[in-house]
Write a structure and sequence with these properties.
The structure holds 2 protein chains of 2 kinds.
Chain A: H1 15-43, H2 53-65, H3 81-86, H4 89-120, H5 122-135, H6 144-151, H7 155-179, H8 183-191, H9 196-233, H10 239-248, H11 252-280
Helix pairs in contact in A: 2-11, 4-5, 4-7, 4-9, 4-10, 5-7, 6-7, 7-9, 8-9, 9-10, 9-11, 10-11
Chain B: H1 8-33, E1 34-47, E2 51-64, E3 68-72, H2 79-87, E4 94-99, E5 102-103, E6 111-114, H3 126-136, H4 147-166, H5 183-196, E7 201-205, H6 213-230, E8 233-237, H7 241-247, E9 250-255, E10 266-272, H8 280-298, H9 311-316
Parallel strand pairs in B: 3-8, 3-9, 6-7, 7-8
Antiparallel strand pairs in B: 1-2, 1-4, 4-5, 9-10
Helix pairs in contact in B: 3-4, 3-5, 4-5, 5-6
Classes of the chains: A mainly alpha, B alpha/beta.
């Protein structure tokens, strides 16, 4: 076997080496963090900028098992872990942000349906496409003050921000997917006695659905970004609100677990969508 | 209203109505016998503000029920455009087209269609692809709640398996997705899918062009068998002359008169063939001569119609019958 350099395009690491390489950067990051933390704590044992392992555990414990400062709830001494978890700070914030996130996700569905119509029906295309092409160029965050005025500072302004921020891009994306469905398929469907409804939903929508799910996966981060922007500016609960509050107290022991928790949540949603896609559309994996 | 009273005027009126009804029925029968009718069809596209590019020029064709017509011509001569108009996917700039006795306004289930690529729905298994057509006409949001739907579905499923076997595919292929099939198998399923609809007209656009020679030959034989069994009217577009002579009972060549011709393509050769299909093995030298002749006409080297592209040449008509042994006028 020829020995190829690791920088050769044709060189392939074996399975074990590939697994090890994929973990390498995680280990390096953890190592660097620990090294910095130890060095800072040597100078100042009370340092809160790069919390030590003990401080992080304490921060996670307080976030997961203790209520938020602004809450009136005081757990009984004999309260179970589940009871404490249900009233914890992280649970409350996750439920608030998650609610806003999933309502926005649900509100995107009609826009996906509209996009299918824009891509398929020339009259819809003529009516809507140029409007959304223009609307897509509006920076959603610049609308935030207007949304606060229109919807108030409760959750609907944040939901509106997410939908306004993501919907035009998704509409244009899905429209392109629909236009990319081969014309032969549409003609064939009509020759098989399909009507407009059949062609739209039983032929075209079915074919683009896995791509729509993939588009949604790519939009998860922008959605969370808009949610965080809204929550950081004006909110009384939510993951981003907590991070913003903790920043004032230099509470890195809570901020860091929150950041990792949000990343984990997004990873899990993305993973679930990927699994759903693989399960429902085996033909798309080919 | 006066009932039971018969006046000479009324009797004469009724006779007139009977005559009109009889004439309408006779017209409908004539139209139906002429499975496809293309009347003075021209197609041109706008090129910029003033200029237009003519693709087809005054095409007139009558295709009888049960004919196997092969449209031949070089790339860009408009044969696929003509097929798309027969489907209803495109509208002619002038003239009109009728299929199965009525004018073609849009794509509908009058004709079956087998394209060169994307002939199957990738998100459906072979069985679902086959069943889609017959079940679509029975589809209703709440249709699945009715026992009649399930009865119909069982019958359609049995027919789908029968068609699958007829096309030389295994029952185990029914659960496969199109990406799991070879190109030849996909086209077999596509033909079966069109046949499931029991259309009297089948339109095929270079359906075998993307296949390797041996698969192509076996599909040609299969198509001939299917056609001779049920005798649908087939319009088959190809640029392969040997394929045209093997499959068709009639070969129509579309071409421009000269390479520099600004006019669109016209029918430069319209030839009926014997039903058995011509091959090099069965017809030898005559087959080769015919191929040579058709290709010369197709490329514009030989002319069979007047030069000018005015109305007169269209009216004269470019029909020419090749009077060879085994080729019947």
């Amino acid at each position: 076997m020829t020995n190829l350099s690791p920088f050769d395009i044709q060189a392939r690491p074996n399975r074990l080496l590939a697994q090890a390489l994929s973990c390498l950067l995680f280990v390096v990051c953890i190592g660097l963090y620990m090294h910095t933390s130890v060095a800072r704590h040597r100078d100042n044992p009370e340092d809160r900028v790069v919390p030590s392992g003990h401080q992080l555990v304490a921060g996670i414990r307080s976030a997961v098992l203790e209520p938020a400062e602004e809450d009136d709830y005081i757990p009984a001494d004999n309260a179970s872990t589940w009871e404490r978890l249900r009233h914890s700070m992280i649970w409350k914030d996750t439920a608030s942000s998650g609610g806003r996130f999933f309502i926005s996700l649900a509100l995107l569905i009609p826009f996906v349906v509209l996009a299918v119509h824009i891509g398929l029906f020339p009259w819809f295309g003529a009516g809507f496409l140029r409007f959304f092409l223009f609307f897509d160029k509006i920076v959603a965050l610049s609308l935030l003050p207007i949304l606060f005025i229109a919807f108030g500072i409760d959750q609907w302004s944040k939901i509106a921000l997410i939908v306004i921020g993501v919907a035009p891009t998704m509409i244009l994306d899905v429209t392109q997917m629909v236009k990319a469905v081969p014309q032969e398929q549409i003609v064939k469907a009509f020759t098989l006695d399909a009507n407009n409804f059949d062609v739209a939903y039983r032929v075209v929508f079915r074919q683009v659905l896995p791509q729509v799910i993939n588009s949604l996966r790519l939009n998860l981060k922008p959605m969370m970004l808009f949610l965080f922007a809204g929550e950081m500016i004006a909110a009384s609960d939510g993951l981003a609100y907590r991070i913003a509050i903790m920043r004032r107290h230099m509470g890195m022991d809570v901020i860091l677990p929150y950041v990792l928790w949000v990343a984990l949540l997004l990873f899990l949603i993305d993973f679930s969508l990927r699994m759903i896609n693989r399960r429902l559309h085996p033909w798309f994996q080919a | 209203m006066v009932s039971g009273v018969s006046t000479p005027e009324m009797t004469a009126g009724l006779r007139l109505l009977d005559k009109q009804a009889a004439r309408a029925t006779a017209d409908a029968e004539v139209r139906a016998a002429k499975s496809i009718s293309v009347e003075d069809v021209s197609v041109s596209y706008a090129l910029g503000r003033a200029a237009r590019r003519s693709v087809l020029e005054n095409i007139s064709l009558e295709i009888e029920e049960g004919e196997f017509v092969v449209l031949l011509g070089e790339t860009g001569c408009g044969k696929s455009t003509l097929l798309r108009m027969l489907l209803g996917q495109e509208r002619p700039t002038a003239g009109q087209i009728s299929v199965a006795g009525s004018r073609v306004e849009r794509v509908d289930a009058r004709s079956g269609y087998v394209p060169q690529r994307y002939s199957l729905f990738p998100d459906r298994t072979v069985l679902d692809n086959l069943m889609m057509g017959p079940l679509t006409s029975k589809f209703h949001i709440l249709g699945r709640l009715r026992p009649s739907y399930w009865e119909a579905r069982r019958a359609v499923k049995a027919e789908a398996f029968r068609q699958l076997a007829h096309m030389g595919l295994q029952a185990s292929d029914a659960g496969k997705y199109p990406y799991q099939l070879s190109g030849g198998m996909q086209q077999r399923v596509a033909i079966a899918q069109a046949l499931m609809m029991k259309n009297r007209v089948l339109l095929m656009d270079e359906a075998f062009s993307a296949l390797d020679p041996s698969t192509r030959a076996s599909l040609q034989r299969l198509l001939r068998t299917v056609w001779s069994e049920t005798r649908p009217t087939v319009v088959f577009v190809t640029h392969n002359t040997a394929e045209a002579l093997f499959l068709g009972t009639r070969v129509i060549v579309l071409a421009r008169e000269t390479k520099e011709d600004a006019c669109g393509s016209r029918v430069t050769l319209d030839m009926k063939l014997a039903e058995g299909g011509m091959t090099l093995r069965s017809h030898g030298q005559k087959f080769l001569e015919l191929v040579e002749h058709i290709e010369a006409v197709s490329s514009g080297e030989k002319r069979t119609a007047p030069d000018a592209c005015g109305e007169e040449s269209a009216r004269v008509g470019p029909v020419r019958v090749f009077p060879e042994d085994g080729v019947t006028p």
